[in-house]
Amino acid sequence: MVIIIGGGTVQQESSSSSSSSTTTTSSSTSSSNQVPNWPIRFLLFKLMFMSGVVKIQSDCPTWKHLTALEYHFATQCIPGPLAWYVHQMLHPVILRCGVAMTFMIEIPGAFLLLCWKSKVRRIGAWLQILLQILIIFTGNYNFFNVLTILLCLACFDESAKQEEEEKKKIRSVNYELHLCFAFMAWMFTNMFEIKNLPAAAPLAVDAGHHEIQSVSAGGRDDVPQQQSNEWTISLSWTKEYCESMIETTIPVVICYMLLYMLSFLPEILALPNKRRKWKSIFHLLVCFVCIGLSSVPFMNISPGLRDVDNWSMLPSQMFVKPWNYIQAFHFSNGYGLFRRMTGVGGSKGSMSTTMMTNHQSNSINSDGSTATSCRPTTTRKGWGGLEPSVVERPEVIFKGKFLRTGTYRELNFRWKPGDVTKGPKQVAPYQPRLDWQMWFAALGSYQHNPWLIHLIHKLLQGCGPVVELLDEPLLAKGDEKLVSIESLLYHYDFSSNLSIAKNISNECDDINQKDEPSHSADESWWIRSDPIREYVPKLVRDDPSLLQYLKAYGYATNTCLSLSDKCNLLQPGSNSMKLCRMVAAIRNVMA
């Protein structure tokens, strides 16, 4: 008969009396073959768990009140084509349940990935895949979500024989499913609070002062407080409770993983083939060290875990010194996706006050025409007893003065928001680095992004490879030249032109009366504020201060090489040149 050991085959001839021992050996080797999958599962657990808990630790109100999705679709780096429709058409109750589902998948769902039962691991993997697919549909996050889905494949590693044996164990499978469902239900009731909101106080007319007052304001305590049909869901976990949970569970998880890896050692030592035995021992040692090194970043997510006197983190503390030696290669890192939601407006004294007092405003399109778009207002009450969610997505807009016409005009980027009449595009899995970096730059200042000054300098020079990154055909062909560029900061939001445009209200009656989706009278996908401030002072070509600034940061001021030109500088026929040319060809196709 044939025994499969670590992907190889060993031919053995035996009698029927030794079949039971052969089956035992086969099952043990099959179990030991799962060792390489456990570091991948632990990596996936770390990625999802950290991404979930940092949202609670940040004390961001949007995560606390589960309103993050009311901002996310319009404020993410590069929104996808479906983001506008999801932002408009989904009721706040669905969006807040979506945030709750995200917490459930990222925190308790992550623990399912490390269960010793394969059925439970598969359930956890399917939950993570579901979350990643939903993100893919509405956003452009290059291949990040695909890589996360690939990590989930480590939870689907059972052989066909094991699958068949599990199907026969109906009672065991049902028990696992019931236990998994009970765990998730218990975590939901522990993490979230659902309650009815009190009804609004009835109004009474004060004839003496000709004012309308609520009954409670008039001092009538005999009116019983009634419950309304409106209910709300909120996160019940606080930052302190979350950190307490982390300090309790993470040491247990790390010890469980390291001990579980050691549990494979007796099975490996029982292997009959010495070569396979020593090879499996080496694999086990490597996986054990990988899990230990990968656990070190957990020490930084909570103050209690950073304490050197905390004996519960002793397994991770043993790997701190090796981790410090290899950290230059970023072998093991912490994660914190969407720690705080960006583009949140509506605070007192912010620019949103100006945006919401103007029912209509004019937006300048790239062709110089004026487009009137409807502004969100605060006359409509927010859902769930909260204030209306006001989006203020910061965007840096370049306006260039052209040599031939002597007038200023906006410079269009290929993917990021700019012209309000251009809707979101699908670009993933390709990542437009420039548009992506412009999103980060808008969140800060140019002093922290000197590369932005270098970009403007190259545009003023008419550097072909740089100009091609923009959506400016005439500039790319050399038919137009720039004299100066000024950079302004604006606030953007999706145009809310549906009668079901959730809690961001709209005062344009002619649009609110429509039952079908519309982009407003001017077919605009976005609305934007007046300029918030000057982001970068006006820069002129060949300005000595500009050249001095670039030299101070080490940027070359007299080079303009395309990627193809850089490829030609490499050693002819080398693998580096072949790879460089392949990347250049892909860029040309995507452009």
User: Looking at the structure, what is the overall shape?
Assistant: globular
> Helical region count?
26
State the helicity in percent bands: 40-55%
Q: How widely separated are the two ends?
A: 57 Å
Tell me the major beta sheet: 5 strands, antiparallel
In the predicted model, the low-confidence regions spanning at least 5 consecutive residues are 1-29, 203-221, 347-380, 498-521
The overall average pLDDT, rounded, is: 78
Number of strands: 15
The percentage of residues in β strands lies in 5-15%
The secondary-structure class comes to: alpha+beta
Radius of gyration: 30 Å
What does it look like?
- The strands form six sheets. Strands 10, 11, 12, 14 and 15 form a five-stranded antiparallel beta sheet that branches. A two-stranded antiparallel sheet has the order 1-2. A two-stranded antiparallel ribbon has the order 3-6.
- Helix 2 packs antiparallel against helix 12 and helix 4 runs antiparallel to helix 5.
- The chain is an alpha+beta fold and 591 residues long.
- The protein is 46% helix and 14% strand.
- A hairpin with a 5-residue loop joins strand 7 and strand 8.
- The chain is built from 26 helices and 15 strands.
